[in-house]
Structures are given as structure tokens and as C-alpha cells.
Amino acid sequence: MNVRDLHDMPHDAEPPGADILAGEYVLGVLDAAQRAEVEQRIARDPGFARLVSQWENRLAPLLDSLGTEAVPAHLWPRIRTSLGWPSVGATPRAWQRTGFWQGMTALAAVVALVAVLARRDVVPVAPVAPPVAVTPTTPAEPEQATRPVTPLLHDDGSPGWLASVDKAHGKVLMVPVPAPADAAGRAPELWLIPAGGAPRSLGLVSINRAHTVAVPDMLRDALVNGSVLAITLEPSGGAPQGIPTGPVIAKGDIANL
Amino acid sequence: MPELDTADTGASRRLDELLVQVATGDRQAFESVYQLASGRLFAICLHILRDRGDAEDVLQDAFVTVWHKAAQFDRAKASAMTWLSTLARNRAIDRLRAAPPRPLDDLSVAEEIPDFAPQPAQAAEHASDRERLDDCLDTLEPRRRSLIRLAFLDGASYDELARRIGAPLGSVKSWIRRGLGQLRVCLER
After folding, report:
1. Rounded alpha-carbon distances, angstroms, from residue B114 to A66, A67, B147, B154
2. Chain A 12-41, CB below 8 Å of chain B: which residues?
3. Residue B7 maps to which CATH number?
4. Which residues are listed as membrane-spanning (chain A) (predicted)?
5. What is the pLDDT of residues B51-64, one digit of tens each?
6. Does the CB of A206 have a partner CB in chain B at under 8 Å?
7. If you ran DSSP here, which 8-state letter would residue A161 be given?
């Protein structure tokens, strides 16, 4: 028996070399304590980290055999919440993707609101209409009895604004579905686009308050069926050259005038 | 199948670019990464943890980490899908190790270990890498091959593997280490 025999241990009882250890770590066979040790070594030993990364690339194709699994819908909102992001995104894109049903509920609410607002200066035509609908604070105007409502819809079909066009007086009542302001500080601008014509600005509109927009005399002729009302996001002072520069976030066709 | 490969490379490159954008704080890119990768990452977590609630927790945790650490992604070192899968898989294994050992009857010992089935284009990373790994695994003796697949896909520890196949721990370690060594030699050939 010599010294050499003492060292002649079975191969597998020896600690594995760095490359095999890296392979064991990536394979996932180590226990919690060993994993923690290996992770510390990855952090301080770039050569070892490279071995680990090579094993990750070698073995990753095995994961193809697992395919994909449907992720429950509640997980994305949970992730947003844990990142501290608003549950309904403040970015314009997320804003456009407001849920369809949420949008439809808001639409119903806005339609009701428009009905109330419109009643303030509309003479009831139905004989059974309650006379209290006419409020004395509003000066009586000789107007048409009803006005069509044009919904300006986001790409996903949810309403952004309702526009009630009063052609006779050159006014458009704009009622927004309240939404977060654009994260980039841009403001919504309303455009009237005659069929086949260029967009003409009707000015900035509010994202949370109903208000009337005056239509310049020269544009009144464009308040006809077939024209389009559209909203773009523009610099806070409005589109600089009177030409839209930002993305269209909502639009609707004027009809039933 | 060159067409499939081209499609793969395109999708894979797009995911790489999105993940690079996430590092700049682009929330839209992050949402796209989630849409493109979450299904695959969820499958990985679920396979390891075998519990939907646990897998959801880990997936959530993994994506929060992706948002904060996307800058560590280096496309020269790995594809985005590999980086994401590795991150999620490591989280799932850490969670598994933190829990008490699974009772054996929860794990089917005679479980069919999935072989490579033809995968749709979007699931495949690089078909050629996969074929090469498959070819090299095929050169291993069946026991080593099975153990390596089982360990990697289930995240099973040496202890668990030994219990599952009813073999001594030392033997399992030996088989896997030798298998890994052979695999590397073959893949570098």
C-alpha cells in the first residue's frame, strides 16, 4: 500500500469539475444550499458564469417539448399591480384598449348624460314628455328638436367621446368618456374631415368635461353626413401647423343629420 | 424545413428586440414580451411545480424580475426565449427546493418522459439546435438520457431522482455526471 492508493478514490466520489458542476446547476439536480453556493460563484467568477450560460444554451431546446400552457387572464393585471402600474394603463395604447364591456357600460352612462344635457335646451316633441324637462335657466332657442349623436370610437370599439352635431348653430357638443390624461402630456384635438378632403381642426377637447365646440362658418358646410370627426393626440398647444401630427385615437362618421 | 427555420428566426429575433426595448422602460414592449412568452414560461413552471397556484405566483414573480432586470439580457449570450425560460425555470426550481420533498406517489415513477415531438414554429427556438441536442442525447445510454431529461424538465434533485427510480444516490450522481460529460463532448463536436 502506498500513498498513491490512498488517493485512488472512486471517480464519482470526487467533487465534480467546474464544467460538470455548472451542468448540474443548470440541469436542476442540486439542493437549495448547493444552488445558493453556485449562484454566488456565478456572481463572482465570470469564467464559471460562462460555463453556466453555455449549459443553459445547450439544454434549453429540451423545453420545446413542453409546448405552451394557457395563462389565466388575471395574471397580467396582477403583474401590473405588483409593478405599481395603474390597473387601467395611463399610456395611450392601453387607454385605447379599455375593455369592451367596460366601454359599453361607459357608453350607456354617457348616452344618459347626453340625454340630460340635450334636454336642457331641447323642446320636447312627444306629447307625453314631462314639462319639467324645460328649465327656466336656459334661454329658449329656436332649435331642431333632436340632434344626432356621433360616437367617436377607439380602435377596440370602445367609445372615447360622443359628439352631438348642431349644424344650424355651427356647434358640436363633445362629451368625453372620462379617461386618464396621455402619459406623454399630449392633448386630444378634434378634426372635421370632409369626404375626400383634408382634416380641419376644431380645436382641443377635454378628456373629462362636456363642452361645446364652435365650428367656424367656413367649415359648417362640412357638417354633413359622410364627414368624419376624429381625435388625434397633439402637443399641449394644439397641432402647430393646423395639420394633425399625432396618432388618431378615436373617430366616428357623421350620419343621420 | 428551411421555411420553418426562417419563421423561427424571425419570431426569435423580434422577441430579442422587444426584450432590449423593455430594458429602456418600454411598457408596451414588456406587454408584448408577456404575450409572446408567458404561455411557454407558464408551461415550464407548471411542469416543475405541478400546482397552478404556485406556477402563477412564480410566473408573476418572474415577469416582475424581467421588468427590473431586462438590462442584464445580452443577446450575444442567449436568445430572449432562452433567457426568459432560464429565469422562470430557476425561480420554479428555487420554489420547489424551498418546499418539503414531494411524496413519491405524487410523481408517476413510470412517467412517460416526453420525447421531442414536432413543435409548431413559434414554440421552436432553433430547430437545428434542437435536432443536434436530440441526436447527442440519443448517443447516451438510455438510463442516462432519461435521467437528464427527467431532471431538466421536472427540476428534480438528485435525491428525488434516486427515490423515484429506486437507485442509490451515488449511482444517480455518477450516471448524470457522466451523461453530462458525454453530452458536452458530443455537442461540441
Report:
1. 8, 11, 12, 11
2. 12-13, 16, 19-20, 23-24, 26-32, 35
3. 1.10.1740.10
4. none
5. 999 999 999 999 99
6. no
7. E
Question: Is residue A110 within 8 Å of residue A159, measured between CB atoms?
Answer: yes
Give ipTM to 2 decimals: 0.87
Q: Is B127 in the same domain as B80?
A: no
Range of the domain at B73: 1-99
Tens of pLDDT, residue by residue over B132-160, are 999 999 999 999 999 999 999 999 999 99
Condensed to tens digits (0 to 9), the pLDDT of residues A165-180 reads 888 888 899 998 888 7
Place of cell 349644424: A167
Interval B87-122: pLDDT, tens? 999 999 999 999 887 776 655 543 444 444 444 443
- The CATH class for the domain spanning A92-253 reads mainly beta
Whether B67 and B113 map to the same domain: the answer is no
Task: Give CA–CA dist B130/B145, Å, rounded.
Answer: 15
Domain boundary among the residues B99, B116, B143 is at: B99
Query: Which residues in chain A touch residue B94, judged by CB atoms under 8 angstroms apart?
Result: 32, 35
